[in-house]
Design a protein that fits this description.
By secondary structure, this protein is mostly helical. The protein has a domain at about 10-70 and about 100-115. It has helices at about 15-30, 40-70, 90-120. Helix 1 (about 15-30) packs across helix 2 (about 40-70) and helix 2 (about 40-70) runs antiparallel to helix 3. The chain starts with 16 loop residues before the first helix and ends in a 17-residue tail after the last helix.
Length: about 140
Protein backbone atom coordinates (compact mmCIF):
# COMPACT_ATOMS: atom_id res chain seq x y z
CA UNK A 1 0.00 0.00 0.00
CA UNK A 2 1.02 3.58 -0.40
CA UNK A 3 1.85 5.57 2.68
CA UNK A 4 1.90 9.28 2.94
CA UNK A 5 5.34 10.74 3.52
CA UNK A 6 6.06 11.90 7.04
CA UNK A 7 5.93 15.71 7.27
CA UNK A 8 9.21 17.23 8.28
CA UNK A 9 9.13 18.51 11.84
CA UNK A 10 9.27 22.26 12.32
CA UNK A 11 12.48 23.49 13.85
CA UNK A 12 12.33 23.98 17.60
CA UNK A 13 15.33 26.32 17.65
CA UNK A 14 13.28 29.46 16.92
CA UNK A 15 11.62 31.24 19.81
CA UNK A 16 8.85 33.18 18.07
CA UNK A 17 5.17 32.35 18.49
CA UNK A 18 4.72 31.04 14.95
CA UNK A 19 7.52 28.51 15.39
CA UNK A 20 6.15 27.40 18.76
CA UNK A 21 2.65 27.03 17.33
CA UNK A 22 3.92 25.05 14.34
CA UNK A 23 5.97 22.78 16.58
CA UNK A 24 3.01 22.30 18.93
CA UNK A 25 0.71 21.38 16.02
CA UNK A 26 3.30 18.92 14.68
CA UNK A 27 3.77 17.25 18.07
CA UNK A 28 0.02 17.00 18.71
CA UNK A 29 -0.36 15.37 15.29
CA UNK A 30 2.34 12.86 16.18
CA UNK A 31 0.60 12.19 19.50
CA UNK A 32 -2.78 11.63 17.83
CA UNK A 33 -1.27 9.24 15.29
CA UNK A 34 0.52 7.43 18.13
CA UNK A 35 3.92 7.97 16.57
CA UNK A 36 5.39 10.22 19.26
CA UNK A 37 8.73 9.51 20.88
CA UNK A 38 9.59 10.10 24.52
CA UNK A 39 11.69 13.13 23.57
CA UNK A 40 8.83 14.60 21.55
CA UNK A 41 6.36 13.91 24.37
CA UNK A 42 8.67 15.68 26.80
CA UNK A 43 8.99 18.60 24.39
CA UNK A 44 5.20 18.76 23.98
CA UNK A 45 4.75 18.76 27.75
CA UNK A 46 7.32 21.57 28.09
CA UNK A 47 5.54 23.57 25.37
CA UNK A 48 2.25 23.15 27.26
CA UNK A 49 3.87 24.22 30.53
CA UNK A 50 5.45 27.27 28.86
CA UNK A 51 2.08 28.22 27.36
CA UNK A 52 0.44 27.94 30.77
CA UNK A 53 3.21 30.06 32.31
CA UNK A 54 2.88 32.76 29.64
CA UNK A 55 -0.91 32.77 30.07
CA UNK A 56 -0.62 33.07 33.84
CA UNK A 57 1.96 35.87 33.55
CA UNK A 58 -0.35 37.73 31.16
CA UNK A 59 -3.27 37.27 33.51
CA UNK A 60 -1.28 38.59 36.46
CA UNK A 61 -0.08 41.59 34.42
CA UNK A 62 -3.66 42.38 33.36
CA UNK A 63 -4.81 42.01 36.95
CA UNK A 64 -2.07 44.37 38.17
CA UNK A 65 -2.93 46.87 35.46
CA UNK A 66 -6.62 46.68 36.34
CA UNK A 67 -5.92 47.21 40.04
CA UNK A 68 -3.63 50.15 39.23
CA UNK A 69 -6.34 51.76 37.12
CA UNK A 70 -8.86 51.18 39.92
CA UNK A 71 -6.67 52.99 42.40
CA UNK A 72 -6.51 56.04 40.09
CA UNK A 73 -10.33 56.27 40.04
CA UNK A 74 -12.06 57.60 43.18
CA UNK A 75 -13.34 54.74 45.30
CA UNK A 76 -16.84 56.25 45.53
CA UNK A 77 -17.39 55.80 41.78
CA UNK A 78 -16.69 52.04 41.69
CA UNK A 79 -17.94 49.52 44.21
CA UNK A 80 -15.35 46.77 44.65
CA UNK A 81 -16.62 43.20 44.59
CA UNK A 82 -16.81 41.45 47.96
CA UNK A 83 -13.85 39.23 48.89
CA UNK A 84 -14.24 35.51 48.14
CA UNK A 85 -15.93 33.41 50.80
CA UNK A 86 -13.12 30.85 50.91
CA UNK A 87 -10.68 31.23 53.77
CA UNK A 88 -7.67 30.26 51.63
CA UNK A 89 -7.29 33.69 50.10
CA UNK A 90 -6.40 32.15 46.73
CA UNK A 91 -8.43 32.13 43.59
CA UNK A 92 -9.96 29.34 41.59
CA UNK A 93 -7.70 30.26 38.67
CA UNK A 94 -4.75 28.49 40.26
CA UNK A 95 -6.87 25.41 40.84
CA UNK A 96 -7.99 25.41 37.22
CA UNK A 97 -4.44 25.98 36.03
CA UNK A 98 -3.20 23.09 38.14
CA UNK A 99 -5.95 20.81 36.88
CA UNK A 100 -5.13 21.73 33.30
CA UNK A 101 -1.44 20.98 33.81
CA UNK A 102 -2.20 17.67 35.52
CA UNK A 103 -4.63 16.71 32.74
CA UNK A 104 -2.02 17.43 30.09
CA UNK A 105 0.53 15.32 31.93
CA UNK A 106 -1.91 12.44 32.45
CA UNK A 107 -2.89 12.53 28.78
CA UNK A 108 0.72 12.32 27.69
CA UNK A 109 1.41 9.52 30.16
CA UNK A 110 -1.60 7.55 28.90
CA UNK A 111 -0.56 8.00 25.27
CA UNK A 112 3.00 6.90 26.00
CA UNK A 113 1.80 3.89 28.02
CA UNK A 114 -0.51 2.79 25.22
CA UNK A 115 2.28 3.23 22.68
CA UNK A 116 4.63 1.13 24.79
CA UNK A 117 1.98 -1.59 25.15
CA UNK A 118 1.48 -1.68 21.39
CA UNK A 119 5.20 -2.07 20.80
CA UNK A 120 5.64 -4.85 23.38
CA UNK A 121 4.71 -8.26 21.92
CA UNK A 122 2.16 -10.12 23.98
CA UNK A 123 3.12 -13.65 25.08
CA UNK A 124 1.58 -16.44 23.03
CA UNK A 125 -1.07 -18.45 24.90
CA UNK A 126 0.26 -21.85 25.89
CA UNK A 127 -1.71 -24.98 26.66
CA UNK A 128 -1.48 -26.19 30.22
CA UNK A 129 0.22 -29.54 30.51
CA UNK A 130 -0.98 -30.37 34.02
CA UNK A 131 -4.57 -31.01 32.87
CA UNK A 132 -5.69 -34.00 30.81
CA UNK A 133 -6.64 -33.33 27.19
CA UNK A 134 -10.29 -34.24 27.85
CA UNK A 135 -10.78 -31.34 30.30
CA UNK A 136 -9.37 -28.66 27.97
Amino acid sequence: MYSTPEPSPPSSSGGDANTRNARYAYLVGRLRSRQITMEEATELFNLMQATLSRTEAGRLAALAQASASRSAIPSRAIALPPPPASGGGGSDDFLLLGLLAMGAGVGLLAAMTKRMQELTPSPAPTARTDQPASSR
